[in-house]
Amino acid sequence: MLSSTFYRSGLSVFLAFGLTTSVAVPLLSPIPATAQSFPNTLQRDRILAGTVISVEYPEAEKIVVMPNETVPLTITVAQDVVTSQGRVWIPAGAEIVGQLKPASGGSQFVANEVIISTSQRFRLDANSQVVTRTETIRKGASAGSILGGAAIGAAAAAAIGAVVGDNAIATEEVLGGAGLGAITGVFVGRRKVDVVVVHPSEDLNLTLQSDIVFR
Question: Residue 160 burial (CB < 10 Å; 0-12/13-18/19+)?
Fold first, then answer.
């Protein structure tokens, strides 16, 4: 299971480490017991594939993960998303839950659901671009310029701690995660580690992958 618990140390936020991937699900199918249908005002309206959803991540300025790391992530809708007739579909402030996961040449956010209110949660088929921006952290160098104000995947934190020996990163809370001890062992003795650096407001805006038709 993936955990959405965050571990904080200094200016950094540690994201719980996950290895599982999500299973494809129908677009906007309600989640049982907690979901309601969209309002009648949206009937006979549509959202086209290719529509962009602007998002933000208030928790941190950037996100640092290993290239092969998957982390759970909840981002916030920055602007109202409207239908072809100008009616609000997803209001600003709604939350989108998904995973930041490995993709060809980098990392990509894949949405699972949108939370509009406590009673409205819907599956969402939307992805970000693939982020290919990387940084190299070397043994003996400070990682502060890369990690300051960042949310850090637990696997990245373990790897960086093993290479740099930074106790502010390799905390007991992070290393206590499932499989993190093995990850740290892999990087002990290495002189550098490459990480993917994601800037949420620039990199995580989402694109709908298929049309949504309200009937």
Answer: buried
DSSP 56-108: E-TT-SEEEE-TT-BEEEEEEE-S-EE-TTS-EEE-TT-EEEEEEEEETTEEE
Under 8 Å CB-to-CB from 97, ≥6 apart: which residues? 72, 73, 74, 111, 112, 113, 114, 115
Question: pLDDT of 176-204, one tens digit each?
Answer: 244 444 444 445 556 788 999 999 999 99
CB 155 within 8 A of CB 180: yes
pTM: 0.75
| Residue 211, phi then psi, degrees to nearest 5 | -65, 150
Model confidence pLDDT, tens digit, residues 131-155: 999 999 887 666 777 777 788 888 8
CA 11, CA 117: separation in Å to the nearest integer?
30
Pairing, β 52-53 against β 206-208: antiparallel
Give Cα separations from 178 to 14, 167, 181, 189, 191 (angstroms): 14, 19, 8, 22, 24
